[in-house]
Design goal:
single chain; 198 residues; alpha+beta; 5 helices
Length: 198
Amino acid sequence: MKEPSTLSGQRARASVEVAETYAKAATAILAPAESGIIVGGTTLGSYQVLELIGKGGMGEVYLALHKLLDRRVALKLLRSKYASNRDAVKRFFMEARAACRINHPNIVAITDFVEDEGGICFYVMEYLAGEALAARIARGPLALPELLRIAFQIVEALAALHGAGVVHRDLKPGNIFLERLSEGAERVKLLAFGLVKI
């Protein structure tokens, strides 16, 4: 049997390795890239693209402004190499549709889906200020009260999904967002419905 101090050291190293893995995942999923599908200032329908704010496997996420309503939103654009693939477009549409099936405070709200004649395909979702759970974990262990608060909201979101017949299938810290609210409060939002099963 190993000494307690040795076990503690191994657990600490394992925790650091897990945190580093989550940090790398968050960087790959949400970190701004140097270049994107489109450039800031581009207009897509009623939306003026402001900046690239994240990248995923099949798409890129941009901060945009609805020009008429003066409202900030996030646009998730399907990468051009997938936009000509009907199966990829169908899967992208299913991602948007799955999230739209449920109106819940812990699930990102998607409000529109656009496929234009020029081959650009995107959906519109609420813009969230905050950080991915992966980034929070990378900074160190969560205190028990914070962990329980986050876990409770994740369970609430999953219960709403399952109640609507939707299975997320890609639940991980990089797909859980901690939305920053007023006065330091936070709300969990589930993202990334690309692998859902309906």
